[in-house]
């Protein structure tokens, strides 16, 4: 007999959907419930109803939110539900690891889950120091709606996938945009968060700030670009833009880190956090031979993800129906 599982998140993030599909879990996204305290109260209520329904023997939750994970630990004990926390980098190092108090609270929460999932081996090694049970599994490649190729043209732009967060080298992107006027640099995400750090009136003409765009528009922008840029200053972070690009067979430039090279090998282009390296990587992303490498990686990667999924299920002593596509 196969058990039923659920996946709960309080924010929209690509990994949540693809991981829920991989584990055949019913997906619950509580991300549009107002602002401030009202939003948290509504999210807490919705989360309680999922646990209280007693319909699921295994529940996955995303960290962040640390509040979601805290309440889920308590509810899992009350309703004797197996709990798995899928911890993104911010779910391992809240507030970029600057607060010892938050780190202690977060580790207390993670330790009380049946298992913590992270994206790479370095994060597993870190959690092992605190006797936190964990397994790593990178993001499954996302699946996108069918794109009407007639609506696409060969866009002469680079798509900078970012959320304008502290770990993203925004200043480097802009510096390189000034040095490569032949390319347009289109930035995703809420750039207004960065308004206290940069004067938008001084940006070069080839920088386009898209702001918030719909999911359909995001996918079309991604599918139509020359290459994707998605760098991070974190050494142990695997970025969503890389998986999305590979899924659509687009060249992508990522940070030159151990975790990226271990996972992606020669299917992506690597850049250090300086302008000369990023310019070289952008040029390398336009080589015709790269797409064939991306195709080979994409085929092999799905097998790898399925094996990691099976390992996790075995550790949880949990049986699920694997999607045939996996």
TrEMBL record:
Gene3D superfamilies in UniProt: Glycogen Phosphorylase B
Organism from which the protein derives: Alteromonas pelagimontana
Lineage: Bacteria, Pseudomonadati, Pseudomonadota, Gammaproteobacteria, Alteromonadales
Protein name: Glycosyltransferase family 4 protein
Record-linked SUPFAM superfamilies: UDP-Glycosyltransferase/glycogen phosphorylase (SSF53756)
């Amino acid at each position: 007999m196969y058990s039923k599982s659920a996946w709960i998140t309080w924010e929209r993030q690509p990994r949540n959907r693809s991981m829920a599909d991989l584990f055949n879990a019913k997906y619950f996204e509580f991300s549009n419930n107002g602002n401030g305290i009202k939003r948290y109260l509504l999210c807490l209520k919705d989360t309680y109803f999922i646990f209280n329904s007693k319909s699921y023997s295994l529940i996955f939750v995303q960290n962040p939110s640390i509040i979601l994970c805290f309440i889920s630990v308590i509810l899992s004990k009350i309703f004797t539900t197996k709990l798995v926390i899928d911890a993104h980098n911010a779910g391992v190092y809240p507030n970029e690891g600057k607060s010892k108090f938050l780190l202690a609270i977060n580790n207390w929460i993670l330790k009380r889950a049946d298992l913590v999932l992270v994206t790479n081996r370095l994060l597993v090694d870190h959690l092992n120091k605190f006797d936190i049970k964990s397994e790593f599994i990178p993001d499954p490649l996302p699946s996108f709606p069918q794109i009407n190729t007639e609506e696409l043209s060969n866009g002469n732009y680079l798509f900078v996938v970012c959320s304008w967060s502290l770990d993203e080298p925004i200043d480097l992107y802009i510096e390189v945009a000034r040095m490569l006027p032949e390319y347009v640099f289109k930035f995703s995400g809420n750039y207004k968060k960065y308004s206290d750090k940069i004067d938008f009136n001084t940006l070069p003409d080839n920088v386009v700030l898209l702001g918030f765009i719909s999911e359909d528009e995001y996918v079309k922008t991604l599918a139509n670009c020359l290459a994707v840029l998605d760098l991070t200053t974190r050494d142990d972070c695997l970025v969503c833009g890389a998986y999305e690009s590979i899924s659509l067979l687009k060249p992508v430039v990522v940070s030159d880190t151990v975790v990226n090279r271990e996972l992606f090998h020669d299917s992506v282009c690597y850049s250090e956090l300086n302008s000369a390296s990023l310019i070289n990587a952008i040029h390398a992303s336009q080589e015709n031979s790269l797409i064939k490498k991306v195709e080979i990686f994409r085929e092999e990667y799905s097998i790898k993800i399925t094996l990691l999924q099976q390992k996790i299920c075995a550790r949880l002593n949990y049986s699920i129906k694997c999607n045939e596509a996996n």
